[in-house]
Amino acid sequence: xxxxxxxxxxxxxxxxxxxxERLADEAASIIREIRSRGFETEIKSDRSPVTEADxxxxxxxxxxxxxxxxxxxxxxxxxxxxGVETAVAPIYWLVDPLDGTREFAAGREDFxxxxxxxxxxxxxxxxxxxxxYHQLYGGIVGVGATxxxxxxxxGIKAVSPGAEGLRVLASRHYADDPRxxxxxxxxxxxxxxxxxxxAKFVRVAEGAADFYPRLGPxxxxxxxxxxxVVEAAGGRVLDEQxxxxxxxxxxxxxxxxxxxxxxxxDDAAS
Length: 270
Ligand SMILES: Nc1ncnc2c1ncn2[C@@H]1O[C@H](COP(=O)(O)O)[C@@H](OP(=O)(O)O)[C@H]1O
Ligand SMILES: [Mg+2]
What we know:
CATH class of the largest domain: Alpha Beta
CATH superfamily of the largest domain: Fructose-1,6-Bisphosphatase, subunit A, domain 1
Binding site for substrate: 77, 98-101, 222
Order of helices and strands: HEEHEHEHEEEEEEHEHEEHEEE
Largest sheet: 7 strands, mixed
Pfam family, one: Inositol_P
GO molecular function, one term: 3'(2'),5'-bisphosphate nucleotidase activity
Function: Converts adenosine-3',5'-bisphosphate (PAP) to AMP.
Bound molecules: adenosine-3'-5'-diphosphate, magnesium ion
Oligomer: single chain
Radius of gyration: 17 Å
């Protein structure tokens, strides 16, 4: 069930989320179509991969955001990679048209479309689509989070870890990082899974995982939308000092962070 809006939600946040969800869903269809007919993978100057699907999805999303909200700057991963510079503003969209490109290019299913809105340095709402799973997540911090799939739209909530221990999800690409053990700090671990992309965040948001530690680098477009979904579902995304991950940092780079579900003692209504 979707909770009633709290005072923290701005009046038009529901319309902004509906826009982000629609564009993420349309981008997911574009990506599925390119995936089914085949594509080439190129290597960008930062040595990360990019495909026709990343570019087509970003073009569609940025055009839709700019048409509907011309006063809100929209920053996209592929435009930034191509040298387009945009300054930090009080409010802006952050778009990762295909997060987990390596997984997508390898034929795996853990890749996402992320469209997040940042206001005053905080991720306030976002949409995350998982095209291969036909799933769409959306959330407004302080209001609630939902998952839409073939079965319809349902409210989702992060959960507290069970007695059997933490269900940990981490990146495929930093699975052997020795710092992971230190971050777990002796906490009991029930399972450790490795998947790509922002899929890790939404699994925490829907209560299917408890902890996503991120030791390796990420960019702000990787995290804005999924952080909003996690926080809207009652979880948190914290830096190493325990502060909520903020936006508008130099070069759009994130520090290490941890994404957690609900803690025992958290306000059950948050
Ligand atoms: N060396 C690096 N510098 C900056 N970001 C990096 C990076 N290595 C990985 N990432 C980010 O991590 C994302 C993948 O996360 P994961 O490892 O959890 O699948 C990538 O998203 P893209 O696939 O959109 O490029 C990329 O933005
Ligand atoms: Mg990404």
